[in-house]
C-alpha cells in the first residue's frame, strides 16, 4: 500500500510539473516550477486566475506531503505479534490463566495472536488443539489468529523420520489445512526446533511445500527460527554443537522467498548447560539481527522478545553435591523472589537487563529480570533496523508496564 501511495504521489508531481510547463509556455514570465519546489518570482504579478491555479498547486503539494508523512509514520509502526500458551492446570482458558487475562485486557495492542496449537508426529499425525475460549475471543474481537505448529517434543530423531517421509508430510499438511478452514484461522506458524543440520535440505523442502499448500488456500505462512550469529561457529564445542543440532538447520535465504514473515526467536541465549545469564542481552540480540539481515529483508523479520525472566537457583544439595537449576518465570514470580530474599535488582546498561544476585545459605543465586525497561530496549532495536515487528513470548509472563507505548 505504501508503494502504491508513493507511485501515486510521483504521478501527481509529474502531472503538476506538466501543468506548470504548459503555464510557462503560455506565460513564460509568470511562473517558475520544479517538480519538488515551487518558486514564484515577485514580478510581474500574475493574473487572478493564475494566482488561484498557483495557490491550488501549493495547497495540493503540501497537503499531499503532510498526508504522506502521516501515512509513512503509521506504515513504519511495528507489528505486534503475541503468543498465548495452554494453561495445563486450567479447566478452560479463562480460569487461572494469566495469558488469557492479559489477552482480554490488552487485545487492542495486538496485531496477530499466535496460539500454541498442534504438533506433528513422525507418521504425519497432527495432534493438539486451540482453546475454544481463545477461538471465541479472537472471532468476537476480529483479532488475527494463527496456529503454532511444532515438531513433536522438539526431538531430533522424530523430526528426521518425519522429514524423510513424503507421505507423512502430505498427510500432515492436509490435516493442517482442514484445521485452518475449520477454525477460520489467519494462518500458521511452523516452529520446528532441535533439527540436525543434516536435515537442513529436507526441512527447507517441507517448509516450501507448506508455504505453497497453505498460500494456495489463502492462509498466511510464517516460520519461527532459532537465531544464529554466524554461518558456522567453532569458537567452542558448546557453540559448535548448538549450531549443528539447533540453529544451523534453517536456510534463511530460501525461507525469505517462501514465507510471509519470519520470527527470529532471539531468546534463550543462556540456558541449561551455560553459565547464569539473561535470556537475551542486547549485544547478542543485535548480532542475531545483523546475521538474519544478511539473508532476510527487514520487512520479513519479526524480532522475538521474551517476557519471562531467568531464575538460576540451587536445586539439590544431597550427598554433598550442588546442582544449579534454571527456571523461566513470570515477572510476578520474579517480584515475589526479590521480596522473599530482600534482593535489590540492578540495571545493566550494557546488556539492557535487570539482574539481582543474592545468597541462600552462603551460595549465590541469580535472577535476570525482563521488565518494561528491558522490553522496550529490545523493541527499540527492532525499530532501529526497520524490522517488520516483534513477536512477544508470551502473554501472562509480562510486566504489565510493557503495554505503555504498545497500545
Task: Describe the model.
It is a single chain. This protein is an alpha/beta fold and 407 residues long. It folds into two domains: 2-74; 78-307 and 371-403, Glycosidases (TIM Barrel, Alpha-Beta Barrel). It is 41% helix and 22% strand. The chain has twelve helices and 16 strands. Strand 14 (353-360) and strand 15 form a beta hairpin. Helix 1 (2-26) packs antiparallel against helix 2. Residues 1-45 and 64-75 have low confidence and may be disordered.
What would a concise description of this structure say?
This protein is of the alpha/beta class and 407 residues long. The protein has helices spanning 2-26, 48-75, 98-106, 132-140, 156-163, 166-183, 200-216, 237-247, 252-257, 282-292, 331-340, 372-384, and strands spanning 32-33, 38-39, 79-84, 112-120, 126-128, 144-151, 187-191, 220-225, 261-264, 301-306, 309-316, 323-329, 346-348, 353-360, 363-369, 389-393.
Amino acid at each position: 500500500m505504501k508503494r502504491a501511495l508513493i507511485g501515486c504521489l510521483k504521478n501527481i508531481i509529474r502531472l503538476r510539473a506538466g501543468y506548470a510547463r504548459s503555464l510557462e509556455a503560455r506565460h513564460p514570465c509568470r511562473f517558475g516550477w520544479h517538480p519538488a519546489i515551487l518558486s514564484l518570482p515577485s514580478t510581474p504579478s500574475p493574473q487572478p486566475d493564475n494566482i488561484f491555479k498557483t495557490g491550488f498547486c501549493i495547497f495540493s503539494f503540501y497537503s499531499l506531503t503532510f498526508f504522506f508523512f502521516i501515512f509513512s509514520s503509521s506504515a513504519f509502526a511495528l507489528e505486534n505479534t503475541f503468543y498465548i500458551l495452554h494453561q495445563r492446570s486450567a479447566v478452560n482458558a479463562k480460569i487461572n490463566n494469566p495469558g488469557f487475562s492479559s489477552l482480554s485486557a490488552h487485545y487492542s495492542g495486538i496485531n496477530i495472536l499466535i496460539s500454541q496449537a498442534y504438533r506433528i508426529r513422525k507418521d504425519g499425525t497432527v495432534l493438539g488443539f486451540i482453546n475454544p475460549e481463545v477461538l471465541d475471543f479472537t472471532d468476537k474481537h476480529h483479532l488475527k489468529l494463527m496456529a503454532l505448529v511444532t515438531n513433536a517434543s522438539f526431538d531430533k530423531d522424530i523430526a528426521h523420520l518425519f522429514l524423510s517421509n513424503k507421505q507423512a508430510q502430505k498427510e500432515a499438511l492436509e490435516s493442517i489445512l482442514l484445521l485452518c478452514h475449520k477454525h477460520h484461522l489467519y494462518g500458521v506458524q511452523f516452529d520446528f526446533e532441535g533439527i540436525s543440520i543434516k536435515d537442513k535440505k529436507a526441512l527447507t523442502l517441507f517448509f516450501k511445500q507448506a508455504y505453497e499448500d497453505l498460500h494456495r488456500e489463502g492462509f498466511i505462512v510464517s516460520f519461527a527460527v532459532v537465531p544464529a550469529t554466524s554461518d558456522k561457529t567453532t569458537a567452542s564445542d558448546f557453540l559448535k554443537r548448538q549450531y549443528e543440532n539447533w540453529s544451523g538447520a534453517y536456510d534463511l535465504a530460501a525461507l525469505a522467498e517462501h514465507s510471509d514473515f519470519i520470527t527470529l526467536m532471539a531468546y534463550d541465549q543462556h540456558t541449561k548447560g551455560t553459565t547464569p545469564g539473561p535470556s537475551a542481552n542486547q549485544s547478542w540480540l543485535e548480532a542475531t539481527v545483523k546475521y538474519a539481515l544478511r539473508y532476510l529483508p527487514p520487512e520479513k523479520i519479526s524480532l522475538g522478545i521474551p517476557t519471562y525472566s531467568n531464575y538460576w537457583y540451587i536445586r539439590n544439595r544431597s550427598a554433598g553435591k550442588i546442582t544449579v537449576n534454571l527456571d523461566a518465570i513470570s515477572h510476578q514470580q520474579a517480584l515475589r523472589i526479590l521480596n522473599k530474599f530482600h534482593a535489590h535488582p540492578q540495571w545493566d546498561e550494557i546488556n539492557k537487563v535487570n539482574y539481582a544476585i543474592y545468597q541462600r545459605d552462603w551460595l549465590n543465586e541469580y535472577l535476570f529480570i525482563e521488565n518494561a525497561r528491558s522490553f522496550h530496549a529490545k523493541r527499540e532495536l527492532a525499530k532501529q533496523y526497520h524490522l517488520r515487528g516483534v513477536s512477544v513470548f508470551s502473554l501472562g509472563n509480562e510486566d504489565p508496564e510493557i503495554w505503555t507505548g504498545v497500545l
